[in-house]
Design goal:
Blueprint (H helix, E strand, L loop, with lengths): L3 E3 L2 H10 L5 E6 L5 H13 L2 E6 L19 H10 L4 E3 L3 H4 L18 H4 L3 H16 L3 E5 L3 H13 L5 E5 L19 H19 L6 H15 L6 E9 L13 E11 L2 E11 L1
Parallel strand pairs: 1-4, 2-3, 2-5, 3-4, 5-6
Antiparallel strand pairs: 7-8, 8-9
Helix pairs in contact: 6-7, 8-9
The structure holds pantoate.
């Protein structure tokens, strides 16, 4: 069956009804779909009878000076991916259709939205949660699938669903990587060859940290990752670190030295004009 395009909210209501009986999984995206998104769609298909993919570059989650206007918009290619992956509906509204001109209410991400990534992108997670809640209300999915690559986003969405009693199950999907370790991201297409070489330090640093998890505590893990990032700061172009954090998955604050159990080693850095994030989970024993 061909994918139906819903270009506005009214179109979505019709397209959703036309899907017929069965459960619905939503895969929210900002387009520029790559192999990572394909893996989200495939996972969504395992969890529900129908898949809806939203393609919407959400202005609310970009701060001043960020890449909203240059964010890749590749709708025809995105549609082809959705068709190949058996998606039922692609919801691709305009910003004018999504947001009322006199809108006032937004979701607040709370303290967890102000640490780690949130400390560098004030208001970012409020914008993410606002659009995600709107998408949940519009699509009314049974299940929604998000990538572990945006670990803090995934944790905050789980938090929102629990705190606000949103009737949807959240599924996290593992990060998909290039063979050389680079985590797939729509922003990778900004990288020159030289940028890309530098960018590989992110996954190298995370792997160096994770490798210490069996024997070292938080400080040793962070030192191992930091050493790789410091070396990459001398590359051309240099890696400009925003943060490296060993985070508590429940709060995204830094873990204490006595922390045991699950933690997330997360990093964000600029390479040339591109800002990249990556993370790996680990267990402190
Ligand atoms: O992860 C993304 O692509 C976006 O943050 C999301 C979840 C689609 C909300 O705009």
């Amino acid at each position: 069956m061909d994918v139906t395009i819903a270009a506005d909210r009214a179109g979505l209501v019709k397209a959703r009804d036309a899907l017929g009986p069965g459960s619905i999984a939503l895969v929210p995206t900002m387009g520029a779909l790559h192999e990572g998104h394909r893996s989200l769609i495939r996972l969504a298909r395992e969890h529900a009878d129908h898949v809806v993919v939203s393609v919407f570059v959400n202005p609310l989650q970009f701060g001043p000076g960020e890449d909203f206007s240059r964010y890749p918009r590749t709708f025809d290619a995105d549609l082809a991916v959705c068709e190949e992956e058996g998606v039922g509906v692609v919801f691709a509204p305009s910003a004018e259709d999504m947001y009322l001109p006199d809108r006032q209410v937004e979701v607040s991400a709370g303290p967890m939205g102000g640490v780690a990534e949130g400390a560098f992108r004030p208001g970012h997670f409020d914008g993410v949660l606002t659009v995600v809640l709107k998408l949940f209300n519009l699509v009314r999915p049974d299940v929604a699938v998000f990538g572990q690559k945006d670990a803090q986003q995934l944790a905050l969405i789980r938090r929102m669903v629990a705190d606000l009693d949103v009737p949807v199950s959240i599924v996290g999907a593992p990060t998909v990587r290039e063979p050389d370790g680079l985590a797939l991201s729509s922003r990778n297409r900004y990288l020159s060859e030289a940028d890309r070489r530098t960018a590989l330090a992110l996954s190298r640093a995370l792997r160096a940290g994770v490798a210490r998890a069996g024997t070292a505590g938080p400080a040793g893990i962070l030192d191992a990752a930091q050493a790789v990032l410091e070396e990459a700061a001398r590359f051309d172009p240099p890696l400009l670190l925003d943060y490296l954090i060993l985070a508590d998955p429940a709060t995204f604050g830094p873990v204490g030295d006595d922390h045991r159990g699950e933690a997330i080693l997360a990093v964000a850095a600029k390479v040339g004009a591109t800002r990249l994030i990556d993370n790996m989970p680990l267990t402190l024993s």
